[in-house]
């Protein structure tokens, strides 16, 4: 399905990003797992090369891990250049999954926590999209697909997450604007709005908050990262060839 494609994933060292790497490799893509934590990105690649997967995964020796900080343009440019050096072509499938939380009530939130979240979740998405798209243009690529990981919090808001909700609402707007601008280049841009998903990110959420969210979720459970990654893989693939600018909710019914 994605045979021969080069797919770059940010936040590829954990959670949803790691699951996206696994499924894209399963579907035949050559995967560039990037993360601020270079060791975690390498672990993802080691998993792709692991014996348990070797029968299923194509190109298993052709994946790459890179340390990349999405908030730093030089770091993003170096990573895209390294991918081009390896494959002699730029990645055409981009997943922006790097993200952080710094939760607090708005009245208590300091400026640093507010800006850090905007920097990683929103500015990072912009920088990676811009650098990756410019590389595609420089190589006269005729198609590409970008998936940004927003959040249902970007649509509904969440108590204690004014910074995070603002960043994820920003990702939805950014997705729509770039979808309009890049359509003529043959590049589609969509975003996914996950609900509560079992990853390290939600590990520190207090039990009573978890219970409350599950109560509000019709399917009464958290998502597994693979359940989000399957939708990302679909949006990256040609199976979604008439979709661009879409915000796809994967929430177990939360916020419908
Ligand atoms: P996670 O914490 O498991 O993974 C996030 C990854 O991003 C980590 O590997 C981390 O090292 C990396 N990262 C953080 N800052 C970075 C930076 N500056 N540059 C590069 N990499 C950086 O989190 P999870 O849950 O897998 O989140 C993935 C995406 O999904 C995030 O954008 C998150 O906001 C979003 N999301 C998660 C939900 C959840 O319930 N887990 C719900 C809705 C959206």
UniProtKB/TrEMBL annotation:
Domain Ketoreductase: start-end pairs: 5-209
Pfam families per record: adh_short_C2 (PF13561)
EC number: 1.1.1.239, 1.1.1.n12
Subcellular location: Mitochondrion matrix
Single GO term (MF): quinone binding
Subunit structure: Heterotetramer with CBR4; contains two molecules of HSD17B8 and CBR4.
Protein name: (3R)-3-hydroxyacyl-CoA dehydrogenase
Source organism of this protein record: Portunus trituberculatus
């Amino acid at each position: 399905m994605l045979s021969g494609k080069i797919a770059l994933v940010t936040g590829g060292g954990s959670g949803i990003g790691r699951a996206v790497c696994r499924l894209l490799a399963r579907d035949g893509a050559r995967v560039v797992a990037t993360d601020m934590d270079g060791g975690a990105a390498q672990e993802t690649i080691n998993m792709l090369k692991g014996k348990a997967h070797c029968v299923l995964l194509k190109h298993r020796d052709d994946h790459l891990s890179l340390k990349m900080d999405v908030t730093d343009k030089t770091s993003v440019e170096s990573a895209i250049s390294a991918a081009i050096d390896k494959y002699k072509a730029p990645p055409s499938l981009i997943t922006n999954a790097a993200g952080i939380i710094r939760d607090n009530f708005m009245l208590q939130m300091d400026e640093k926590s507010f800006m850090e979240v905007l920097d990683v979740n929103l500015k990072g998405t912009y920088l990676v999209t811009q650098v990756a798209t410019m590389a595609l243009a420089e190589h006269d690529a005729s198609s590409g697909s970008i998936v940004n990981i927003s959040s249902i919090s970007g649509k509904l808001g969440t108590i204690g997450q004014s910074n995070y909700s603002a960043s994820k609402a920003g990702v939805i707007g950014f997705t729509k604007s770039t979808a309009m601008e890049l359509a003529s280049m043959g590049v589609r841009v969509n975003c996914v709005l996950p609900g509560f998903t079992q990853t390290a990110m939600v590990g520190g959420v207090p039990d009573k908050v978890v219970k409350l969210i599950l109560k509000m979720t019709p399917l009464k459970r958290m998502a597994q990262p693979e359940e989000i990654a399957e939708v990302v893989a679909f949006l990256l693939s040609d199976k979604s060839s008439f979709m661009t600018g879409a915000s796809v909710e994967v929430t177990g019914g939360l916020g419908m």
